[in-house]
Structures are given as structure tokens and as C-alpha cells.
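Researcher: Checking consistency across runs. Here is Deoxyribodipyrimidine photo-lyase again:
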Amino acid sequence: MSRPSIVWFRDDLRLADNPALRAALDRGEPVIGLYVLDEDGPGIRPLGGAARWWLHHSLASLGERLRERGGTLVLRRGPADRIVSETVTDAAAGAVFWNRRYGGPEREVDAGLKAALRAGGIEVSSFAASLLFEPWTVRTGAGTPFSVFTPFWRACLALPGPRAPLAEPREVGGPHRAPASDSLDDWELLPTRPDWAKGLRETWEPGEPAARRRLREFLQEDLANYDRARDEPAAGATSLLSPRLRWGELSPHTVWHETVEAGAGGRFLSELGWREFAWHVLFHHPDLASRNLRPEFDAFPWPHLKPTHLAAWQRGRTGLALVDAGMKELWHTGYMHNRVRMVAASFLVKNLLIDWRRGEEWFWDTLVDADGANNPFNWQWVAGSGADAAPYFRIFNPQLQAKKFDPDGHYVREWAPEHLGEHPPDPLVDLGETRKAALAAYERVKSASRT
């Protein structure tokens, strides 16, 4: 009697370079693709609105591609440990394969499920697919995790290089009768009342085929200009691959090898390294989104929150052109240029003196590429509380940043044209005075660390 293999898809919504899928096909039995929408498991963080929009369309694409190859994608909702076990029973499956995750709650779910399934006689294997270098394989000379990027990346590059990507399967034979599946539409991942996703639809096409096209376009048209223009938000020199990597529509191994084959990409490859570093830090500090990595920052004297200031920042009404342009780009497209992200985050934390966690929560809800590592890691970097953090006294001046990186105002003109009129809005706060207040607060942190 045939006992199908289940491939549990998570943040790896692709057919190419998918080791779990390849292992299932090599087993020689019918293959069932499974995606579990788990928003109830212990410690699992529910997706933000923009992420839910992307997930809907990426799952639709994955399901269609599996069907074209004779396979099937089963959708089920609930705590992953229970749902996967139930699906194994319903399908009379003999094996379950997945690609590894690195967040703390996710690892606990996976470890518990692996033990339970094996105890029941089910073959279970997990694979490295989402990172070039798994977090436990990169250690300092003393055997400890890294906390500074440059030596971390140097240690990564001293290891055997990233493996070659696996080919996309031509056929994915499914079972004669698949287990029951939820309807994707019934999950209500798309916004309806109101439908705020018009800008996302205009900007993005989720799914593996579109991801592959974007990678080719970047390597052929933009990579040569990347090092020079990557910090200019109007230059169009960035890869726009971050949501593709976040959802696993592309593997980092594919991006790495195709970039190397293109004959360039030193700085771009180091950005892949920064992504690796974020996951390295999260693996060793699972509470990265809620707790200062540097404990001395627990003494930071955050003032009482002014909701009007937070709302002005969220809606791009701070009176600072570059910040407002970035926040409006984010609201419309679910994305923001990285240089502008740093400026907008610095303004929230170091000029408005609003806890970095409030900004991280907003980005989690509005970014299509927000993930459990990079989002909190980069917020802590800007705040000065994280790994390899920007010094707290490094405060991005939004006006000087605009002059340097958007000197002709092309980016501001596109997203916040009111700043280029005869009567631009007044800044929400005085940059000089708030900078002094931030530095005074930082002195409190330094004093607390010495006592």
C-alpha cells in the first residue's frame, strides 16, 4: 500500500531549490504539499496585514504550479503540531519533510512534532534551505555566537561555500485522493473593508515565477549600478528581492550563485550576509522583537508616549520630507527603500523618543518583507540596543540625508510632493532640540551601565 510523503511548506513557497520537496520526490511515493496557517501556536506571532496579502497570492501561485505538475497543495488552519499530525493520519502518510525554521517558538514546535511523529513510526527529515549558513555552524574562536557583523561574515566566507541550488522538478505526482483542504479565500487574508491593497497590487506580483524574473532583471540591468546608487531612493538600483527571500519564493542559494555567475556583487552579497547575521542573532536571542539585546538599554528613559506624534510618523505627517516620503511609500506599496527606513526609524526613536518596539510593530504590520529576524534586528540596530548597533549618538538628520541621497528631490516629489511647494509643512519637532534630548537620555544609559 502506498504511503504518501507530506512536504510541509512554510517560508519556502517555491519548487526550485527546495530540499524538502526533493527528498519527498526521491522517496518515490505520491507527494502532498501542505501549508498550515498557524496563528494560535504558543509564541507564534500573527502575520501583519501586508504579509497576509502577500501570503495569499504566493500560496495561490504555489498551488497552481503544483497542480500543473500533477501535485496538490492542502491548506489547513490551526496549531501546526496538531494540524500536521491530523493530516498525516488523514493521508495515511509515511513521511513528512520540511525545511528548517530558526525562531525560538517555531523550533520548539518542529522539535516536538518531529519526536512525536517518529515515535509513531513516521519518517521525518528537515533540511537547510532558508539560510546560506545555519546559525549554529558559525561560531567565534571561543565557541560563542557572533555579535559583530564583520567578523561574522568573515567567518561565514571561510566555511565551505553555499551549496549549488537544486533544479526545479518537472513532475510532482500527487495521491489519487488528497486530504480535504480549506479554501484559500475562506482564510480572508486579503483586506476587504476597506480594501487598502490597491498600491500593493500595483507594485507587486507575488509568486515564484515573478521572483525569478525579478532576479534576472536585477542581475542584468541593476547589479552593475548597485554599489554606486544603492543609497539613492530614486535611483531604482536596489534588488527588490527582500519579500522574495522572506517568503522563500527564491532561495538565498539561488540568489548567491546566480549573482556570482553574473561576475559581480561583492557589496550585494554582503547584504545577503547581513540577512544571515540577523537570523544568527535571532537564533541565539529568540525574544529579539520584545527585549533589548543590550540589557543596559533597559534603563533608557522613554518618555510618556505622545499618540499624536506616533500617528504623525505612521501617516507621513512629520513635516520632514524624507521621512514623510518613506512612510507614504510604505503605506502605499508595503515597502520602503532601506536608506529611508534607517532615517525614518532614527527619527522615531531618537527625535520623537518613541520606543523602538512601537516602530517595529508598525513595520511588522505594513511591510511585505517583514520577518521575525530582520525586522526587530534592524530596529534594534538603529536604536543602538542591538548587535553591532549604530552608536546611539549617531542620529540621522533627515534634512541632511535628503540633501545627500535625494538632492534633486525626485523621491520626495513622488511620495510627498507637498514638501516641495511654496508652503511646505512645518517639522513636527525641532531636530536640534530633540537631538540634545536623545543624547541626554543616552547618557542615562551609559551611567546606568557603569553602576
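Researcher: Does this match what you'd expect to see?
Model: One thing to look at in this run: DSSP finds 19 helices and five strands in the chain.
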